[in-house]
Amino acid sequence: MTILATEGLTKRFPRVTALDRLTVSAGPGVTGLVGANGAGKSTLIKILLGLLPPTEGTATVLGLDPATRALDIRRSVGYMPEHDCLPPDVSATEFTVHMAQMSGLPRSAARERAADTLRHVGLYEERYRPIGGYSTGMRQRVKLAQALVHDPKLVFLDEPTNGLDPQGRDDMLALIRRIGTEFGISVVVTSHLLGELERVCDHVIVIDGGRLLRSSAIGEFTQATRTITVEVEEGRQALADRLTALGQTVTAHGRLLIVETDSPAAFDVVRDAVVDLDLCLVRLEQGRHRIEDVFREEVANV
Ligand SMILES: Nc1ncnc2c1ncn2[C@@H]1O[C@H](COP(=O)(O)OP(=O)(O)OP(=O)(O)O)[C@@H](O)[C@H]1O
């Protein structure tokens, strides 16, 4: 099943081409839309919601054309915009109930759905206070709640971790993962931080300067490499020397040692060396490509 698809999608503003013949598709689950600031992520979402007309090309969302079926799309799709757009004088409850009613729910159902949704996103007693006094994390949660309150099939989350501290970021990422898994709602989430999407996405679309760089399942980005990553508490140099003496090719990467190998037997060699040197092992794992590395290589090749 295809959740969204574009074909030759182009958006030209007077001074800049925000999307340049973008052809891409995504299925159900959590899809990351990644690109530097100005890559065209928000423009793509706005076109998919029918808020902006494309200059050329076509798009479908849940099988519907945003150019002609924008209202039907918005009935089944939630949108968490990037920028702050919340009224300061009303409470999260009042705002979310209002948004639920705007989507067509009767008042009593809207109240019930709003209460459930605010609880799901982690807003409790504070939901009765005016939004103007909320922290950035709480505001992001309200924006998320209003995107979910009408029980959509798909949500677009534009930079949901923006402005959050590390804990807030982790909480938001965990919530996004739950939306995709427990709630069964497909998610398209944008970020300029590749590393954070690695943790929550099933599929990643990378765009740069409005063009498609890559669209792949997350597993293809993070394939196993022919390396083993080792971390010890102390004695990193001694371990590197020992492994080198044993014929391994070892490089240091901050606190980590990267051992190049094709053979699973190298795990045993590392383990035995750690035991011989009486070191405390923190980590011993198969090296994997990081999504950042793939992105860096592909941008360099453009
Ligand atoms: N309404 C507009 N008028 C003119 N140019 C625009 C408009 N909206 C976006 N742009 C330009 O289009 C390009 C893509 O912008 P867009 O907001 O889609 O990028 P983005 O990937 O979402 O980045 P960011 O995270 O910084 O918003 C940028 O160069 C931006 O300046």
TrEMBL record:
UniProt domain ABC transporter: residue ranges: 4-234
Question: Which protein family is named in the record?
Answer: Belongs to the ABC transporter superfamily.
Q: Name one GO molecular function term.
A: ATP binding
**Record key words, sorted:** ATP-binding, Nucleotide-binding, Transport
The protein in question is named ABC transporter ATP-binding protein
What InterPro entries does the annotation carry?
Answer: AAA+_ATPase, ABC_transporter-like_ATP-bd, P-loop_NTPase
- Which Gene3D superfamilies does the protein's record reference? P-loop containing nucleotide triphosphate hydrolases
Please indicate if the UniProt record lists Nucleotidyltransferase as a keyword.
no
What is the source species?
Answer: Sphaerisporangium album
Pfam families per UniProt: ABC_tran
The lineage's top-level taxon is Bacteria
